[in-house]
Amino acid sequence: MPDQVPAVRLASITKRFPGVVANRDVDLTIERGEVHALCGENGAGKSTLMKILYGMQRPDEGTIEIDGETVSLRGPGDAIARGIGMVHQHFKLADNLTVLENVILGAEPKRFGRIDFAAARAKITEMSKTYGLRVDPDVLVEKLGVGERQRVEILKVLYRGARVLILDEPTAVLVPQEVDELFGNLRELRAEGLTVLFISHKLDEVLSVADTISVIRRGTTVATRLDPQEVTSRRLAELMVGSELPTPELRDSTATDRVQLDVGGLTVLTPEGRPLVDDVSLRIRRGEIVGLAGVEGNGQTELIEAIMGVRAADAGTIGHGDDDITHWPTRRRREAGIAYIPEDRHRHGLILEGTLWENRVLGHQTRPPNVKGPWIDRRGARRDTTRIVRDYDVRTPGIEVPAAALSGGNQQKLIVGREMSGEPRLLIAAHPTRGIDVGAQAAIWDHLRRARAAGLAVLLISADLEELIGMSDTLHVILRGRLVAEVDPRTVTPEELGSAMTGAGAPS
Fold first, then answer.
1. Which of these, 110, 275, 280, 480, has the minimum number of CB atoms within 10 Å of its CB?
2. What was the pLDDT predicted at 2?
3. Which burial class, exposed, middle or buried, applies to 272 when counting CB atoms under 10 A from its CB (0-12, 13-18, 19+)?
4. In order of start, what are the domains of the chain with their CATH numbers?
């Protein structure tokens, strides 16, 4: 261990909210000049702990030491004055201002009573060069991509003198190339003597960038200062969930002879007449999970939208049980028992500003327990939301909080609980475990398995090939809008499936 004073030491930190203990006796030591990763499930208490370190919240118990001195942080201003900066998961930039204006906002250098833009530009340019952040100080933020915006956020905290950077789930919104660039930036920061605290549940990323790793589970630290050279992603995952890492797998077939979804010759065209979905036919029986594998952009989204009635089919038929629903509106399809887990939970699955019970009603506002006669039944909706929170382990202080207050995994469990309610007969599950941690992932797999055993028909779309192989009774490959192969999930390998998805050849 280094003999120098740690950059940060948190000792016995406890933070309570009404109905929940977010952090309990957390201990964390971060040495100077290291990238320290803090891992944990969604909702494990990582973000609350970082808000405490950044002065946004005050602990109920415990102490914070910065550079060996015990401090009391009454707000982010105190943290910044102590050299602590935080880059939030959701950026806080003004689109109509330039990079320079965003960086200096609230910390403007003055000369003769006016903002000294020349000095600010020179400082930002020098910092950008030193840390490899590569941003143009004079470009409008609205013209920047996500990765560039994140570099601006990092520059903002560095400009204010931060020596310790807290990055909260920094890769959640980045594509792989941007993740690689970010990690390069973090290594540059470390080489210049800065300290980085990296919060994530993406274990492969943690192992590739961190010097040391700590794990938090259900609000308390269960492992500290692990060496990434001596720990595997599987072991980290087991520490996060507190048990052996689950795997996606089905047991004996539960499929019946009753066809629940019967798609025949379905075609969806662009306005110019190009096929997005090209003569697709598939059947799903009750008690069966049918997987659909394909590189994104090959017609999966349009196929789902046609089945849900969001997009009109140009040819073909869609059968649901004994009904031809080809021309039914979406609401009638939902009322007939089609449940839907959308691929983008924020855009299509939730109203983030709405409470949990209001989101329980969303898409189900014509059926009990959400309505009584022509009126919304608030009591019934609240009561059923409480059931969903209990049965699906949605970790929340209560059902009156906005959906935005939940972690990604808990948002997803709320959606799954809502869609599994009302005894659906068909579930369209688009990327049901995307962007969530291993614990929430395992819980959703369990719910799918139980629903399958009870007779639910499921169409599963996923970019996770292990999930598709493990959770499918039958597996189709879609390429350029056509079903090009049907493979046996019991024998196919991820490599063979990936090859079929790119058109390099179907498994034999």
1. 110
2. 47
3. exposed
4. 8-241 (3.40.50.300), 246-337+424-508 (3.40.50.300), 343-422 (no CATH)
